[in-house]
TrEMBL record:
Record flagged with keyword RNA-binding: no
InterPro entries reported for this sequence: DUF5931, HATPase_C_sf, HATPase_dom, Sensor_HK_TwoCompSys, Sig_transdc_His_kin-like_C, Sig_transdc_His_kin_sub3_dim/P
The protein's name: Oxygen sensor histidine kinase NreB
Names of required cofactors: [4Fe-4S] cluster
Molecular-function GO terms, alphabetical: kinase activity
Protein source organism: Streptomyces kronopolitis
Enzyme class, broadest EC rank: transferase
Keyword Transmembrane: yes
Cellular compartment(s): Cytoplasm
Major subcellular site: cytoplasm
Source species taxonomy: Bacteria, Bacillati, Actinomycetota, Actinomycetes, Kitasatosporales
NCBIfam families for this protein: HK_morpho_MacS
UniProt-listed Enzyme Commission number(s): 2.7.13.3
C-alpha cells in the first residue's frame, strides 16, 4: 500500500505526514460514520426536551403539592444536563456508566412525581417531572448498544411509568409501547447501519489493495517479465551457456507470471480482462513519457510510435490530458502495439488514430493481422499473461475509461481506448500521489 492510504475505520489519512514532507497538501477525507449524525441528533433532542420539561414545570408550578421538591429535581436535572450534554456527541464519550446514570435520572424523576404532585393530576394524565426527556436516555442506549440495550432500558422506563400511574391507563400504556418500539427500532437500524459500514470499509480496503497490486503487476509485466523473455529468446538464439541462462530466465518468467496472476486476478476487475501479450522487446516506458501534473498533448506521446509498419493519424489541434493520464494512455497503446508485433508478426501493419471528442479522448489501434480467436483472451488471463488485463484494460480502468476489442479471425484486430477528460483529471492525480508514496 502507498503512504497515502485512508484508514476507513477512523476516517484519517495515514499518509498526511508523508504528504507534508513532499510539500503536498494532504487529501481531506471525511469520517465514514453513520452514527455521528445520530449522536448529534440525540444531543439536540436532550437539550430541546429539557427546555420543554422546564416549560411544563413552570406552567404547573403552583399546582404541585410540593413545588419545592419538584423544583429541586428540575434544578438537579438542569445541572446534570449542563455538565453532561457533551457526553452524547460521540460514541467514545457516551460510556456505559454515563448511560446508566442518565437512565437513573429519568427513572428517578418518574418515581419522584407521585411524591411531589397530586394524585388527581397524575390520574388525569399529567406529565411526569422529566416528561419526554426520558426518551433521550433510552435512545442513548439504542445508539450505543443496539436494540437489546434499548429493550432493557425502555423496560425500566415502562415499569417506572406503571408504578407512577399505579394503574395501566390507556395513555400510559400507549406512551410506554411507543417508547419501547421506537427505541428498539432505532437500535436495530443502528446495528444494521454499523454492520454495513464495516462491510463498506472492508470493501474499500480491498479495492485499494487491489488497485495497488494491479499497479505493481503492470510494472512487473512491463519491465521484469519482458527482460526475462528477451533473455530467454536471445539465449536460445546464441546457444551454448547462454541457452542455459535463457532456459533459467524462462522458468523464472513462468514462475513470476503464476505468482502475479495468482495474487491479483481473483480480485481484479470485471471478468473478461485477459492478456494476449507475450514478452516483447519494446521499451518499458512509453516514448516521450511525460512527468508532472500539468496538461500534456497526447499526440506528442504517440507520435514516436509511428515508423515502419505503423501509421499515425492525429487531429490538427492539441489533444490534451493530464500528464499522468496521457502517459498511462501511451503505455496502453505501447502494449497494444507489442501485441501486434508478437501475434501478427513483424510484417504486419498497424494504424493509430487519435480522436479528440468533447468528453473524452479516443485512441484506436488497428492491425491487419490474423485476428484473435474467440476465447483466446480468457485463456490468456488464466495462463497469467497480463498484457491485456493490466497493461491495457487495467490502465484504462484506473483512468475511469475503457478498452474494447473488435476482432474477426483473418481480418485483424481493433482496440478502442477511451479516456474521459473529466475522470482522467481525478484519476491521474490519485495515480501520481500513489506512485510518489510507493
Amino acid at each position: 500500500m502507498t503512504d497515502t492510504d485512508t484508514d476507513t475505520d477512523t476516517g484519517t489519512v495515514r499518509g498526511a505526514p508523508a504528504a507534508r514532507r513532499r510539500g503536498e497538501r494532504p487529501a481531506k477525507v471525511l469520517r465514514m460514520s453513520v452514527e455521528l449524525p445520530l449522536w448529534r441528533a440525540l444531543t439536540g433532542y436532550r437539550i430541546l426536551t429539557l427546555l420543554y420539561a422546564l416549560f411544563l414545570f413552570a406552567l404547573a408550578y403552583r399546582r404541585y403539592d410540593h413545588p419545592l421538591g419538584a423544583a429541586a429535581y428540575m434544578g438537579a436535572l438542569t445541572l446534570w444536563m449542563a455538565l453532561t450534554w457533551r457526553r452524547t456527541v460521540s460514541a467514545e464519550r457516551c460510556t456505559r456508566q454515563f448511560l446508566a446514570a442518565d437512565l437513573a435520572f429519568a427513572v428517578g424523576g418518574i418515581l419522584l412525581t407521585p411524591l411531589v404532585d397530586s394524585h388527581a393530576r397524575i390520574m388525569g394524565g399529567g406529565p411526569t417531572l422529566p416528561s419526554i426527556w426520558t426518551a433521550g436516555a433510552v435512545l442513548g442506549f439504542a445508539i450505543k448498544g443496539g436494540w437489546r440495550w434499548a429493550a432493557v432500558a425502555s423496560s425500566f422506563v415502562a415499569v417506572a411509568n406503571l408504578v407512577e400511574r399505579q394503574v395501566p391507563a390507556r395513555d400510559t400504556v400507549h406512551n410506554v409501547v411507543l417508547v419501547w418500539v421506537a427505541s428498539v427500532g432505532i437500535g436495530y437500524v443502528v446495528e444494521v447501519a454499523r454492520s454495513s459500514e464495516r462491510t463498506l470499509a472492508r470493501a474499500l480496503q480491498i479495492e485499494a489493495a487491489t488497485r495497488e497490486r494491479e499497479r505493481l503487476a503492470r510494472d512487473i509485466h512491463d519491465s521484469v517479465l519482458q527482460v526475462l523473455a528477451m533473455v530467454q529468446r536471445r539465449g536460445n538464439e546464441i546457444g551454448g551457456e547462454a541457452a542455459d541462462l535463457g532456459r533459467m530466465a524462462g522458468e523464472q518468467e513462468v514462475a513470476l507470471r503464476t505468482l502475479v496472476a495468482g495474487g491479483l486476478l481473483p480480485h481484479a476487475g470485471p471478468p473478461g480482462g485477459a492478456a494476449t501479450a507475450v514478452p516483447h522487446q519494446a521499451g518499458d516506458a512509453p516514448p516521450g513519457a511525460a512527468s508532472g501534473s500539468g496538461p500534456c498533448d497526447v499526440r506528442a506521446l504517440l507520435a514516436p510510435f509511428a515508423g515502419r509498419g505503423v501509421t499515425f493519424s492525429e487531429p490538427g489541434a492539441p489533444v490534451e490530458l493530464p500528464a499522468a493520464a496521457a502517459a498511462e494512455l501511451a503505455a496502453a497503446v505501447s502494449a497494444a502495439l507489442d501485441n501486434v508485433r508478437v501475434h501478427a508478426g513483424e510484417g504486419a501493419r498497424a494504424w493509430i488514430l487519435v480522436e479528440d471528442e468533447p468528453e473524452a479522448v479516443l485512441v484506436t489501434v488497428r492491425d491487419d493481422g490474423p485476428g484473435i480467436a474467440e476465447g483466446r483472451l480468457a485463456d490468456a488471463e488464466r495462463e497469467g499473461r497480463l498484457g491485456v488485463a493490466l497493461s491495457i484494460r487495467g490502465r484504462l480502468r484506473e483512468l475511469g475509461g475503457s478498452a474494447r476489442w473488435v476482432s474477426v479471425p483473418g481480418q485483424g484486430t481493433e482496440v478502442e481506448l477511451t479516456v474521459p477528460k473529466q475522470g482522467a483529471s481525478v484519476a491521474s492525480e490519485g495515480t501520481r500521489r500513489g506512485k510518489a508514496g510507493a
